[in-house]
Amino acid sequence: MSDTSEDDNEISFPVKFLGRVEVVRSEGMQILDEAFQSLKSPDRDATRKTGMKSKVHLFLSMSGIDILENKTKFMLYTCPLPTVSFCAVLPLSPKVFGFVAKHPAADMHHCYLFQSKKFAHVLVSVIGDAFRASKKEENIKGGGRDLIVEALRHKNKMLQRENAELKRRGVFPHEEE
Questions:
Q1: pTM here?
Q2: Which of 71, 76, 85, 128 could form a disulfide with 26 if both were Cys (CB 3.0 to 4.6 A apart)?
Q3: In Å, what is the CA distance from 3 to each residue of 6, 14, 90, 97, 98?
């Protein structure tokens, strides 16, 4: 079924890569369906799509999704998880699934489409879980900074109160305000 690493934070599945299509929106089942139809149609706009129809390894980790060529393990595409905006199985083609990701350097989105006879629904679920976990980890990291800032604010307020109390008692008799 799949290969997992020693720390169980990475997993890979062999799938058939149907292609990558530039899309106009970042999410929605209609986008996946339109991308799939685009790959099936004759090449009217070959610059916007890349059809592969080859076996690849879909490598998923907490940092992103990598698409590796099957035999050489050459990386074809990499998509950091924060750039992924949508992932689903096509209802009319239950062996076909895909995800939409924002290009890291340009203001465009691509839909990546795959076929898996047995694991399409599992892969969509795993990608969704990894996405949620990365968001949770990101929030914890960001939340940690927020907690530090909040602790420093609290400490500052306590010191201001202490200074005000000392001034009231006359400990700082000649301080200007």
A1: 0.68
A2: 85
A3: 10, 9, 25, 20, 20
